[in-house]
Specification:
single chain; globular; binds uridine-diphosphate-N-acetylglucosamine; binds uridine-5'-diphosphate
């Protein structure tokens, strides 16, 4: 029986792995070893996703988080190597672009275990982002590259990766939104809990290192939210909470800051928002799945198709007025309808390629 070791560690990876692991269980005839690096560890950043998204409890939790890039990646690499030596998986499956992704891919390839990368080919072309380094390295040591979009396929081809290794599957996050997102309307009580009215608030998330660890950028983002003329609901990532406390950043009165929420509550907040302002990769796409306009507070985005379709606009986060103006302008706007992320069966395509047609 084939053995697949799946490496997860950060919030977006629990979300992506949920549908692929579910599909692996549905197919049967395969053993999946789920390895959690421990990169994210708070209940609201980790456990809640296992409870809500039908993920099995990980067989391993390496408990390696809250370190600098080198120490985190290095210690995860060492620990993952030991797991792979003991478990002898046929394939190591990694997701996205975090330090856990990089450690998983490097540990596997050095042991000559084939690496399969879900969300291959995404590029910001900004090498100052830790995620960009992780993605480029992981794609170039992977055997099987699951590209979510046409743009991702083009990026991989341009970097000389063989066509036979690239598989355009669609985006597993669309599968998650279709399968779990529809539970949000009946199961979530979040709007009541925060006292928010559908269509009357902006949903915001901010956690990118380049936005949050620079006090002046963080300050202009907060000021931009303060001047946007609407209530802003912001489930706050622990990195952001820590930086706000350390820098003493002022939080405007129209912001409702809450702890990070689970996927079901997040889906509900997205579905009912007038607009979403974010620096998250996943949340940009979920805005589109919910047909809500998005303002991306970054210098660039990897998800270029949403900008082309008019659902998203990229606003560099250095000017509070530009942020506020973009939010005011885009509320109520809509883009063009299309299917850039596939048909909601990306996990089936991933598993079909890993195990052969079912
Ligand atoms: C990581 C990923 C980023 C991804 C994000 C998803 C890398 C380089 N970055 O960024 O690509 O978009 O996850 O959310 O892998 N912390 C807690 N509790 C937790 C987790 C984190 O308090 O459960 C705090 C710690 O102070 C930690 C800091 O947040 O040092 C940053 O965490 P880290 O995992 O290093 O990076 P993220 O910003 O979460
Ligand atoms: N998310 C969540 N609760 C939150 C914030 C985000 O469930 O409070 C989900 C979100 O819906 C998406 C994923 O986490 O599915 C995105 O993760 P994140 O923004 O941390 O990382 P990125 O996608 O930028 O790597």
């Amino acid at each position: 029986m084939k053995k697949i070791a799946t490496v997860v560690g950060a919030r977006p990876q629990f979300v992506k792995a949920a549908v692929v692991s579910r599909e692996l269980r549905r197919r049967g005839g395969v053993t999946e070893i789920l390895v959690h690096t421990g990169q994210h560890y708070d209940d609201a950043m980790s456990e809640v996703f296992f409870r809500e998204l039908e993920l099995e409890k990980p067989q391993y939790n390496l408990g390696i988080g809250s370190l600098g890039h080198g120490a985190m990646t290095g210690r995860q690499l060492e620990a993952l190597e030991r797991v792979f030596v003991d478990e002898c998986p046929d394939i190591v499956l990694v997701y996205g672009d975090t330090n856990s992704t990089l450690a998983g891919a490097l540990a596997a390839v050095k042991l000559h275990i084939p690496v399969a990368h879900v969300e291959a080919g995404l590029r910001s072309f900004n090498r100052r982002m830790p995620e960009e380094i992780n993605r480029v390295v992981v794609d170039h040591v992977s055997t099987t590259l699951f590209a979510p979009t046409e743009a991702a396929v083009t990026n991989l081809r341009r970097e000389g990766i063989s066509d036979s290794a690239i598989h355009r599957t669609g985006d597993v996050m669309y599968d998650v939104a279709r399968y779990f997102g529809q539970r949000a309307a009946t199961e979530s009580r979040i709007l009541k809990m925060v006292g928010a009215t559908p269509g009357q608030y902006v949903l915001a998330t901010i956690h990118r290192q380049e936005n949050v660890d620079d006090p002046s950028t963080l300050q202009s983002i907060m000021e931009g939210f303060g001047r946007c003329g609407m209530r802003v609901v912001l489930p706050m990532h622990p990195r952001t909470r820590k930086q706000i406390a350390e820098a003493g950043t002022a939080v405007p009165d129209n912001l409702t800051i809450i702890d990070p929420v689970g996927y079901i509550d997040m889906s509900r907040l997205e579905q009912c928002a007038a607009l979403i302002a974010t620096d998250s990769g996943g949340v940009q796409k979920e805005a589109y799945f919910a047909q809500v306009p998005c303002v991306t507070l970054r210098e660039e985005t990897e998800w270029v198709e949403l900008v082309e379709l008019g659902w998203n606009c990229v606003v560099p986060p250095r000017s509070a007025e530009a942020i506020a103006a973009a939010i005011r302008e885009r509320v109520g706007s809509r883009g063009v309808s299309a299917s850039p992320y596939g048909d909601g069966h990306a996990a089936g395509a991933v598993v079909g390629r890993l195990l052969g047609p079912g």
